[in-house]
Amino acid sequence: MAVSGALVVAAKSGWIKVLKNTPAVEIANIAYISMENAKCLYKFATGELSAIEALDAIGNTNCSAIGGIYGAVEGAVWGLALGGPIGAFVGSVVGGIAGSAIAEPIYEGSKAIVKTAAKVIKSTYEGVKSAAKGVMDTLTFGLFS
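Predicted structure:
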């Protein structure tokens, strides 16, 4: 909370020019995601997490936070339309929780897709490499085998 407050003050005072016209809620989100990522990087630096684990934690944090932010905004809009200011508050809380919960399995699914794609790319590379080696062996009569 203190970090996001300090960032808002610094941005609105012109110390961070790129954020000067950014709404406070967006600066708070930037601060939250940055702090969570810094925690993951600290754990990596101290050896508590491997590089793969740190990247996975950062990806999960970012995906979950973005899903929560999106859900909160959508929930607030629907809540405002259906129940006024109180509805907006309730909608943003429910939407934020739902958005974050939905984002986690999406992140896990995307990891599975990336792993499969990596296997396909590696297999394709090995096939092309083998074919190129065969062509080179034929052209050079096996002198460089």
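Summary: Residues 1-46 form one domain.
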